[in-house]
Amino acid sequence: MTTHILAIDDSRTIRSLLTMALEGAGFAVTTAVDGVDGVNKFREKHADLVITDVNMPNKDGFGVIEDIRSSDTNRGVPVLVLTTESGAALKERARKAGATGWIVKPFDDESLISVIRRLTGA
Amino acid sequence: MTQDSSILNAFFEECEDLIVALTEGLEAMREGHADDETVNAVFRAVHSIKGAAGAFALDELVGFAHKFETVLDEVRSHRLETDDGLLRTLQRAGDILADLVDDARAQTPANRNAVDPVLAELQALLGPETAQEEEEFVFEAMTLDFGPLDDAEGGYRVTFKPSAEFYATGNDPVLILKALSELGEVKTQLDTSALPDSFDAFDWSAGYLVWTVDIPGLGTDLAIRDVFQFMDDLCDLKVEPLTEESVPELLEPDPVPVTAQPVAPVDEPQEQAAVPAPKPADRTVKKPATTLRVDPERVDRLINAVGELIINQSVISQRLQEADLPNSSDLFSDLDDYKLLAREIQEGVMAIRAQPVKPLFQRMLRIAREAADATDKDVELVTEGESTEVDKTVVERLADPLTHMIRNAIDHGIETPDQRQAAGKPRQGTLRLSASQRSGSIVIEIADNGAGLNRPRIRDIAVERGLIPSDAVLSDPEIDQLLFAPGFSTAKEVTNLSGRGVGMDVVKTAITALGGRVAIATIPGEGTTFSITLPLTLAVMDGMIITVCGQTMVVPISSILETIRPTESDLSMLGLKSQLLHIRGDYVPIIDLGERLGHPASDKPMADRVLLLLQTESVSQCALAVDDIFDQRQVVVKSMQGSYGEIVGVSGATILGDGKIALIIDPDAIAHSGAMPQHIHTSPQGDRIHATA
């Protein structure tokens, strides 16, 4: 079964790059343009893994993760934070919200894909 | 990340939008009505540019955006006071960021002379102590501390005990075991001794299980680190070389096959877990607009096809008329439907190309700011009607004329603060840039509240430049029009702003090329307003089909106020040849179109002809005498430049339903020009002029 990934980022460019890299690796990709859109799409379609930006309008990445984790059934869905920052404080916040891991932009296609494969067992 | 030119283009397009959002937000901050969300939006715009620019290794852009973003982060967390100085720095930084985007797009190196001072200003705001966090943009695989990086001949033993958090953050031990098993031949054991004896004591969120995985064949622990990326703090983890002692029989408790399910989520009330309550439904959440990005060429192709469709429609109507069908024929109503549809398609296609003038106006804010700085003037630029939509080509081609006019208005129109004060005006001048749609046209106004045009000086300069004889008698509007004469420039010395030998004639040429007009209204001491009137679309216009001296021509509907079939009592003579139209208590000069185009004066009495009451820019009203009028219809405008050069009084040509060419009259030029030197006519068949699209 195709692994389905939800990519949430307010930057069109990053969305394109993610889609290209992930679809190229054989994943099915849904994109969302901000936090609220992301949570809605997650509820509608579910996903095997979520990649989310942090700084976004309407709802930030932490909010997205908290929303996803607020349901028991989604506890096991890996969520990767895609961020330009790599500070310890940010990681701690992300972890607290329930993030599985973080990828620093600009991301490297191969590392991203290998991380996703590992986290989804794909 | 993968480099791809179409994605790079998408990035630059996105940057355009982000720069607009940024400029807008900064403007709102400067005007003092910025809430936290505005500041956040500004931050995000810069942040997004930085994030995406990194993907394309646009280092200068990333570096600057990073510094800018850091300052904005301080601002949004209220650690920096937003005073005037700060806001000015932010605006300058916004300008530089826009420049850097442009540079990156054009693949030209950044202008360090412009960038560095602003970079220094930003750094100054941050103070020296934050200068050290630099390595931020490096992809950082988690470094896990497993102790010394020995190569172990005999492989490794991994012992890990996931914590509660491990399970709460989307991790799955099965996947870890699977990943480890891919590293080689593995031997796995599960220690379940920590599981409580009774089910009631079972806390589903706690981590009870400990796995031990031996990977005898593995040479280094690097791959193991990879597997546990992100998880260093989520489990008790031990990675050690396998030794002789550890290889034999392992820990006692019942070995469990790898495939065993780990702690399956148990349905149980979850109050004990640190789960945040779901937030109440989000407040004012904008539904993200879905847009479609289309190659402009495709739209242009569509527009051309629509033009052909309209011509085709008039051909069909012509044929139908010639076929002498009974009026009751269904074909006529079918044709009406066809026309309606064609118009709808045309409007739809035009709407695709329409763009709000907002980004253009945003750019002008910056132009105004720079011009004010360069001339030491205090100018506020007010924009109105930013959502007015104009054809994309028009928006693009308006940038230069507008830039020039705004610089002019600030350089020549608005006085210095001291002069203004002396004249009893507020020290700060105002420049108003507005756009609006009026009956089929777009009107863009640039209004300053400066000193107004200095007509005696304009006249002197025109005489000096040999543009007019020194004894010429000119009306005020005629003097104003001198500004647009080629070779006219009022700058005493060439200032680096509006000088450069480029005059307003270039502005006028650019506007005319768009089928538009420029008008000036000035009140001494109170200011000057330039009005640019542009057609809504460039390709198709509504025209009145007329004949004069046996030729069929088109007059744009937009300039016709009304059509009049005059009676003798409406007419009066002025001198021997000129006639006036008496309308609603006013006298309006009558211009004979045929004569203006160089034909011999018609002997047809005026009362048998038709007058078109025109509204033009240079002459307030006039009546254009033509022989007859036919119907109004849409015509496709074809430019004649290239084939015929510029002919005063004629703005273009079109193809009529019968396949003949008809010239399109420029009412403004006709009303304004004196006797026409050229004799313009189409060949008797009227179909051999080469009009170019």
Task: List the keywords.
heterodimer, A: 122 residues, alpha/beta, five-stranded parallel sheet, 5 helices, B: 693 residues, alpha+beta, six-stranded mixed sheet, five-stranded mixed sheet, 18 helices, 22 strands, 37% helix, disordered C terminus
Shape of chain B: elongated
Q: Largest sheet of chain B, if any? A: 6 strands, mixed
Largest sheet of chain A: 5 strands, parallel
Question: What is the oligomer described by this structure?
Answer: heterodimer
Q: What is the global morphology of chain A?
A: globular
**Contiguous runs where pLDDT drops below 50 for at least 5 residues of chain A:** none
Q: Total number of helical segments of chain A?
A: 5
Radius of gyration of chain A: 13 Å
Poorly predicted runs of chain B are 131-150, 247-287, 492-501, 674-693
Structural class given helices, strands, pairing of chain B?
A: alpha+beta
The arrangement of helices and strands of chain A along the chain is: EHEHEHEHEH
The Rg value of chain B, from CA coordinates, equals 38 Å
The spatial strand order of the largest sheet of chain B comes to 14-18-19-17-16-15
Number of strands of chain A: 5
Percent range for β-strand residues of chain A: 15-25%
Q: Which structural class do you get from the secondary structure elements of chain A?
A: alpha/beta
**N→C terminal distance of chain A:** 9 Å
- The proportion of residues in beta strands of chain B is 15-25%
Q: Which two protein chains have the largest interface (Cβ within 8 Å of the partner's Cβ), and how many residues from each?
A: A-B, 54 and 55 residues
Domain Response regulatory (chain A): 4-120
Protein name (chain A): Response regulator
Pfam family, one (chain A): Response_reg
Keywords (chain A): Phosphoprotein
